[in-house]
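Rotation project, supervised by the postdoc (A.L.). Task for the rotation student: set up a whole-complex structure prediction and record inputs and outputs verbatim in this book. Inputs entered:
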Amino acid sequence: MSEEKSDALAWWREARFGMFIHWGIYAQPAGEWKGERIPSLGEWIMRNAKIPIPEYEKIAEQFNPVKFDAEEWVSIAKDAGMKYLVITAKHHDGFAMFKSAHPYNIVDATPYGKDPMADLAAACQKAGIRLCFYYSQAQDWHAPGGAGHWEEDDGSGWTQQPVEPERFTRYLEEKAKPQVRELLTQYGPIGLIWFDTPVVITKEQSIELRDLVHSLQPDCLVSGRVGHGVGDYGSLGDNQHPDGAVEGDWETPCTINDTWGYKFYDDNWKSPEDLIRLLVKCAAKGVNYLLNVGPTAEGVIPEPSVERLKAVGQWLKFNGEAIYGTRATPFPCDFDWGRVTCKSGRVYLHIMNWPEETLRIAGLRNRVLRALMLAGSVSVPFSQSHEPGSDSRMVELNLPAEQPDPGIVVLALNIEGEPEVSSLPVEK
Ligand code: FHN
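Outputs recorded:
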């Protein structure tokens, strides 16, 4: 990564927590087609229910999100403590949720007739949230030449057309690149373009897309899923939470229930406690947590998502310092009591399992100046020892017997200098 790009990544590293929004005309069938519940992801309904293109196009004729309120969406993200918002400008179904010269878009092909991205850009600007766009660069089931494009065959049904490289290149030149250009010229500064599922794209084409983004907005980041490892940062698999250390800059996209795009019957919501744990787990590995909501066809973020995000925001209000702008744990191991994040002069202990007795941390080399619970700034008595002539060190924290809060309690250790630990912090 160039030094220049590393500067552009600064806001993203500081942010740690963003909102993913999967919103498209697939929210209209909401997981059901012709009275049948279609398994798997809501945004994949066209493919999974094998909906012919002319029929799928008709969904757009009904799509009218009259309750869409950009300021409300942005304030839900802001109250959750999220710092950036990544919305599906075009998913694999090929439908553009923004004003485009390509006619298959929300302004020209729906009764709604307005551009929600323009409203979101204004609302994000006002709230100090970075607006970012998801764009499915390779899969496009609607445009000829796009990967996964479905075409009627000899009448025996629907077959997946094999992607011919020349047709794919034409699709890239005639649809994908012009639309990426539109996204980067119509809405002011964009934080990043979240490309996805590179599938058939060649390395040269991934590089061309990345360079196109940088030529239009030099500070705009490009997600790792542009393909071939040429993005500005890496994207872990969906709902993938690293257990070991990760090298470099990574983000993990996660669902709040099981689907990304709205399905009216997906009630498998993660609890607020689970969401906070996952956020902490990511931060402790230095990974950004991009948490999804799937708004309805009317333009409403489902209430169960809103409630949960509020709870996460409430926790962050007191403990955000232990997430934003932090680095991965300096320790080479995980602990049974919880997770660790750090920054210069501070180590944060996220206690997930309240210890029955003293909390003992082996291996921290820095002198501890003070220990306090972040919520309420309550000081915690502690002692620190070091076995002379060895690298064996111990901090013992005398926590109250009763956990002061049922959620994750964060202890901050004020330390001298940059966090440093013994390479093998073995407790004797
Ligand atoms: O196929 C997509 C899926 O619909 C969704 O958008 C996720 C989000 O990370 N990305 C792809 C699968 O990895």
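Student's summary: The chain has two domains: 3-322, 338-415.
Supervisor addendum: The longest strand covers residues 84-90.
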